[in-house]
Amino acid sequence: MRERVLQLVESARFQWFIIGVILVNAAVIGAEVSPSWMAEHGDATTAVGRVTVVIFVIEIVLRIYAHGRSFFRGGWNLFDLFVVLIALTPGAGSYSVLRVLRVLRVLRLLSTIRSMRLVVAALVKTVPGMASIGALLGMLIYISAVMATQMFGDADPERFGSLGDSLVAMFTITTGDDWANIIKPSVEAYPAAWFFFILYIVASAYIVLNLFIAVAVEALDREAEEVTDEIEEVVDESTEAILAAIADLKTQVAGLELRLDQR
């Protein structure tokens, strides 16, 4: 019985069915924040939402039964269980925090679709590298903000009058959002300020931020290589098993032929 349930929950049709339910549930969550929609279709929307939650509960129960204790050793399994338990929490529709957490059910797509799981796993592995690059960017912003406060505080006190204002301005320049208008008053007062801001933009927006992309791409490549190695290992084991079975079969056939010849 357990093997049949395991085959069911691991089947492609079942996975696609759950993905469809997740998408329907995501649409319901979005509709629930629209007062006009709920005024006209509130009862139907609530009913559909409850049906999707029931399906999620049934799915979790089946997976726990199929996998047994090993279910609780999987991080994604625990995440799915946590999301479903939020939906079953009494008063989840009354408390704002729990209402907000209900949207996490949409994130179940991450645990259901394998390609998304691989991307998330790769991004998690980039955390140490990202932290180092983030620290480098933070130091660059801080040093530049201190310099900008000293050099342009009088010319543009609104943006560079204090260290806090300068930090916000330099971070905004890093994102490329309206940077021309931010530096305009300072450049009008000190034409040589162009040199300072151009150096900062090149260093922060074009060099440091691209390092984030490089680290992410490297992690994705590494994750893809690991998956490929796992697949090759499984294929090699299967091939060895098949070759061993063929060799055994040849031995048995040879033995039968020998007996026939002796007769």
TrEMBL record:
- Coiled coil region boundaries: none
Ion transport domain: from which residue to which, for each copy? 13-225
Q: Which keywords does the record carry?
A: Ion channel, Ion transport, Membrane, Transmembrane, Transmembrane helix, Transport
Tell me the membrane topology, using the record's own terms: Multi-pass membrane protein
Subcellular localization, per the record?
A: Membrane
Annotated InterPro entries: Ion_trans_dom (IPR005821), VGCC_Ca_Na (IPR043203), Volt_channel_dom_sf (IPR027359)
Source organism, top-level taxon: Bacteria
Q: Which GO terms describe its molecular function?
A: voltage-gated sodium channel activity
Residues that span the membrane, as ranges? 14-35, 47-66, 78-98, 118-143, 194-217
Q: What GO cellular component entries does it have?
A: voltage-gated sodium channel complex
Identify the SUPFAM superfamilies for this entry. Voltage-gated potassium channels (SSF81324)
Per its UniProt record, what Pfam families does this chain match? Ion_trans
Q: Please give the Gene3D superfamilies that the UniProt record associates with this protein.
A: 1.10.287.70, Voltage-gated potassium channels. Chain C (1.20.120.350)
Q: Which protein, by its recorded name, is this?
A: Voltage-gated sodium channel
Q: Which organism is it from?
A: Nocardioides lianchengensis
